[in-house]
Specification:
This protein is mainly beta. Among the domains are: about 190 residues, Jelly Rolls; about 140 residues, Protein of unknown function DUF2961 (Jelly Rolls, Sandwich). The chain contains eight helices and 36 strands. The strands form six sheets. Strands 15, 17, 18, 23, 25, 27, 30, 31, 32, 33, 35 and 36 form a twelve-stranded mixed beta sheet that branches.
């Protein structure tokens, strides 16, 4: 249902949106819209008269802009009310970033772009919000909100560097925002400090806001070829935490990888027949292959357990099952926190969805997405209809190649344009088409830029985590499996009628005699109560194929 009451936001309210997982279930209002301005290659265009796209795979993504004003570029321009949530850059330099609020002639921010990520409130010491402004494997990120009421323009002066993303939300006319004046008062600074602390405590922080939460624990044996119920409730309520413990970490690495994908988790809300959540167990909790330690805000895992903090409301019932496609029984212990609520509270809330898939184009014209087609190299992440919010993705990439005979100058395969093999998988941009857009309101600059890191084709290849983005696993030389996450909490993408999310995939599934590049995605979103999505469970043999375990384990 459309919300009619228009809120008045304080700065502290906006800061809470950074970690308020319950807000994701609130149905978006008409006029609420999120997107991303970036430096993507502007030669990618859409022809309205033909309905076709041109130069869709163009890849000169470091310096694009809306328009030029003197020696500066306009990177973002929006009418309010709204807020900038995230600023990212791969190479911020000494050229200034200038932010103009509500048509003012004087910018509220005017400083070297590099300093934007390093300083706070015009203070002399460096900024000290490690969870709000993380550097992720070279990528610079700032999640300090910049609100505006009427208008916002972001300019980058000559010498600013290369590559930028700026994510935002604009709200319906009538919503009241606290226009940023360039400084943070005491209450706002404390709110940011509290948010940084919450994000640092990810995985241990309790997100249940309502009183009366109940913790339940159950241990079940999931039979081979069968299933077991770990949660079954009638009535209305919400789940705010799920923790799963298994003995998978005591298995050999190949067997652990197999079992984490043989086991699947499904969730049904309100007596629905088709589950709103279905995914292999490890993939649902944000890592593949197998169990890889990391901590994010909504999901994570360690050697003892996997956790989910996604908020999951229901009005009539909730049922969570574990299914075992293996040949041996598996013991599962589940701790689940839920809160009984009134049906009137939950009826208006969106329902949580998560689905795993590989190369699932649903009803799209696949010919257009093949090499030579006008939509190549788009690979679909999520296709959804109705009202909802897109909240992120776990992407499991299996990219492998024969090692070349030529010896590289440096590292494993050389660097930059002096590589012995063009192995990199992640050059593809994310593109989000909202409510039937012909041109996406989010158009990125590369897969690792979307996640929040940078220069990922260049060694070394580290693992890292943060509240909203992580790389739980990558092979030491990048040849093989890679696991990455990007979660949209404050910068979730609302949609009223439809959402089509893609990420470009330049390499074919088979890109050489013995070279492969396979994608598998677990996508997280919220959708209207009483509606279903089009994704179906994937047979075990197809899930297994992505793991490349060897014949002895297949």
């Amino acid at each position: 249902m459309n919300q009619t009451k228009l809120p008045v936001y304080s700065y502290q309210d906006l800061v809470r949106r950074l970690y308020d997982l319950e807000a994701l279930a609130i149905s978006p209002q008409d006029g609420e819209k999120s997107g991303c301005f970036s430096s993507f290659d502007r030669s990618s265009i859409y022809h309205a008269e033909t309905g076709l796209y041109e130069n869709w795979g163009a890849n000169d993504d470091g310096a694009g802009f809306i328009r030029q004003e003197g020696d500066s570029i306009v990177a973002l321009e929006l009418d309010g009310p709204g807020v900038i949530w995230r600023v990212w850059s791969a190479l911020p330099a000494e050229g200034h970033i200038r932010i103009f609020i509500d048509h003012a002639d004087t910018p509220v921010i005017d400083q070297p772009f590099r300093d934007y990520f390093d300083t706070f409130n015009r203070e002399e010491p460096p900024a000290n919000f490690p969870s709000l402004t993380p550097t992720l494997s070279r990528g610079r990120n700032s999640f300090i909100p910049i609100p505006f009421q009427k208008h916002c323009k972001v300019m980058l002066d000559k010498g600013w560097g290369a590559y930028y993303h700026i994510t935002y939300t604009v709200f319906p006319v009538g919503v009241r925002m606290p226009s940023f004046d360039g400084s943070f008062d005491k209450e706002s600074a404390i709110a940011l400090a509290e948010a940084d602390r919450v994000l640092q405590q990810r995985g241990t922080y309790s997100f249940a806001q309502a009183g009366g939460s109940i913790d339940e624990s159950v241990t079940v044996s999931v039979p081979a070829g069968g299933r077991a119920v770990i949660f079954d409730k009638q009535g209305a309520g919400s789940i705010s935490m799920i923790r799963i413990r298994t003995d998978l970490r005591r298995k050999s690495e190949p067997l652990q990888r197999k079992l984490a994908r043989q086991l699947t988790i499904s969730m049904k809300w309100d007596n629905e027949e088709i589950p709103s959540v279905w995914a292999p167990l490890g993939d649902f909790f944000g890592s593949a292959p197998g169990i890889k330690q990391y901590r994010s805000l909504p999901l994570g895992m360690n050697e003892h357990e996997m956790y989910s903090n996604w908020y999951m409301p229901f009005s009539e019932s909730a049922r969570i099952e574990i299914e075992n496609d293996g040949t041996e029984a598996c013991e599962i212990t589940a701790d689940i926190r839920f809160t009984p609520l009134s049906k009137s509270d939950t009826d208006e809330l969106l329902r949580f969805h998560a689905k795993w898939h590989r190369d699932e184009y649903l009803d799209l014209d696949t010919e257009r997405f093949k090499e030579g087609g006008d939509r190549w190299p788009d690979w679909p992440l999520l296709l959804a209809k109705g009202r909802g919010r897109f909240c992120g993705v776990h992407l499991h990439v299996y990219n492998t190649w024969e090692k070349p005979d030529e010896e590289p100058e440096t590292w494993w395969y050389g660097q930059w344009d002096r590589k012995t093999i063009d192995w990199w998988w992640g050059e593809g941009d994310e593109e989000f088409f909202v409510d039937g857009e012909s041109f996406p309101s989010t158009f990125g600059t590369g897969s690792e830029d979307y996640i929040g890191y940078a220069w990922a084709a260049e060694p070394p290849f580290p693992m890292f985590d943060s509240a909203f983005a992580s790389q739980p696993f990558i092979e030491l030389d990048a040849n093989g499996h890679t696991s990455v996450n990007r979660f949209h909490i404050c910068d979730n993408v609302p949609f009223i009628h439809s959402f089509e999310g893609f990420i470009e995939k330049y390499k074919a599934n088979q890109w050489g005699l013995n070279n492969e590049c396979l994608y598998a995605a677990t996508v997280y979103w919220y959708q209207e109560r009483g509606t279903s999505d089009a994704y179906k469970p994937v047979p075990w043999i197809e899930r297994l194929d992505h793991l490349k375990l060897g014949e002895e384990l297949q």
